[in-house]
Amino acid sequence: MSLFKITLSPGHGLHTPGKRTPDGMHEWEFNAAVVTKMIDLFSHYKDVAVKRLDDPTGKNDIPLETRAKASNNWNADYHLDVHANAAGDTWSDAHGIETFSFGLSGKSFEIAKVLQKALVNGTGLADRGVKNGDWLYMVRTTKAPANLVECGFMSNKNEAALLKSDAYREKIANTLVNAIAGYFKLEKVKEDPKPAAKPKTDAGIHKVQVGAFSDPKNAEKLAEELKKKGYKSFIVKE
């Protein structure tokens, strides 16, 4: 199999205005954590390379044009943007998962349906469906099939709590990687089996038999001689 290339883009930068929960968690914190976990998970697949398109420190919000160009110049086979949703800057009732594709047909749409189903099943959150994302710069500009996932609402108190938790971030990363790997039939690297446990032995103990006697008196006599020579551990056994 030839090398399969995936580009991943955590939406926005750490200090991008407005992209945060009402109580202060920046969207990039969630997006970046998921992408970091995904990169590690993809490292366990055969012939898969991953390129991250943002600034890993979060300090700079890399322009979308720069990100798309990097994906295209690298000849990526697939691109995914990871985001958290919001319905304004205050708490609201909006909730659920949605996935965007380039139009509502073709490969991007087919992958979007797989991702959406996996995320809804994996999280138990409301299904907001697959939506036309041809207005989204990264979805429409990358040459490779591309999707954008919204993994919950920062403006919903319950979902904001999930977005802040490492367990939820881990779940989203695993779900996305498994869904992408399944769709593209990526193969996991076979891990070497653990070596069989060695049988227990009396490590460091060396046994020496120095004699066998029919007359116990002779055995006791040898034992006395060994004691005089400085041997401190021996057994006289019938």
Structural class given helices, strands, pairing?
alpha/beta
The count of strands amounts to: 6
CATH topology of the largest domain: Aminopeptidase
Distance between the termini: 70 Å
Overall pLDDT: 88
Low-pLDDT sequence parts: 201-208, 232-238
Describe the structure.
This protein has 7 helices and 6 strands. By secondary structure, it is α/β, with parallel strands linked by helices. Helix 1 (27-42) crosses helix 6 and helix 3 packs antiparallel against helix 6 (166-184). It has helices spanning 27-42, 64-73, 106-123, 137-141, 157-164, 166-184, 216-228, and strands at 4-10, 48-52, 78-85, 97-101, 127-132, 146-153. Helix 3 (106-123) links the parallel strand 4 (97-101) and strand 5. The chain has 2 domains: 4-184, Zn-dependent exopeptidases (Aminopeptidase); 204-238, no CATH class.
List key phrases describing it.
single chain; Aminopeptidase; 238 residues; six-stranded mixed sheet; alpha/beta; disordered C terminus
Summarize the structure.
Helices cover 37% and strands 16% of the residues.
